[in-house]
Amino acid sequence: SLWSVVASRRFTAILILLFCIHTTWQLLRVWLPMFLQRGRGYSESDALLFNSFYFVATDIGCIAAGAVSLWLARHGLTPHAAKCRVYLACSLLTALTVLVAVLPKGWPLLATLLVVGAGALGVYPCYYSFVQELSSQHIGKITGLLATLVWAISSPVHKYFGRHVDQTQSFDLGIAVVGLTPLLGYLALR
Which of 24, 38, 78, 146 is the most exposed, fewest CB within 10 Å of its CB? Predict the structure, then answer.
C-alpha cells in the first residue's frame, strides 16, 4: 500500500536525499546572480549572462547523468549500482563549491560554477529513478508527496542563508556548505 511505502526506511532515505539535492539546487539557482555581483564584483549584465550559461551546463549535467547511468547499466552494473555511482559523481561535482568559496573573480571561478551546476542538476535523474524503485503502483503519489514535504522543509533555508549573508557580508561559507549537502544525501541512500 501507499502507506507502507511512506512508512519505510527507503522512503525516509529518499526524502533526506531529496532535501539535500533540492536545497543545493534551489540555493545555487536563486543566489548565484547575487553571489556573482555582490560576492565577486561582476556587473549585473555579466552575472545574468553567465546565469544563462549556468543553466545550459545544468541541462548538460542532467542529460549526461542519465546517459552515463544507462551506459554503466549496460556494461555490467546493476541499474541501482549505476545510479548510485552517477549520483556520487554528481555529488562530488557539487562539492566543488568549496573551491568556489575561495576563488576570486575570473574564468576559474566561472568554469568551476559550470561544473557545479552540471552536478547540481545531474543528481535529479538519479533521484527520480530511485523513487521508481519504491513502488511501481504509486510513483505519482510518492513523487508528489516527496516534493510537497521537501518544499515545506527546505523553503526556510533561504531565509537562513540570506540572514547569514547579511550578517557576514559574505556568501563564501554558505556557498561552500550548500554544495556538500548532496553527499549527505548519498549517505542516507547508502
Answer: 78
- Contacts with 109 (C-beta within 8 Å, 6 or more apart), sequence order: 40, 100, 103
Residue 174 Cα to chain centre, angstroms: 14
pTM of the model: 0.92
Distance separating alpha carbons of residues 92 and 9, to the nearest angstrom: 25
Question: What is the C-alpha to C-alpha distance for residues 157 and 91, in angstroms, rounded to an integer?
Answer: 19
Q: How many C-beta atoms surround the C-beta of residue 173 within 10 A?
A: 12
- Burial code (b: 16+ CB inside 10 Å, e: under 16) for 66-100 equals bebbeebbeeebeeeebbbebbbbbbebbbbbbbb
Model pLDDT for residues 111-144, shown as the tens digit of each residue: 999 999 999 999 999 999 998 888 888 889 998 9
Residue 110: CB atoms within 10 A of its CB come to 18
Question: Which of 159, 148, 124 lies closest to 27 in space, CA to CA?
Answer: 159
Distance CA 108, CA 112 (A): 6
Rounded Cα distance, 31 and 79, in Å:
34
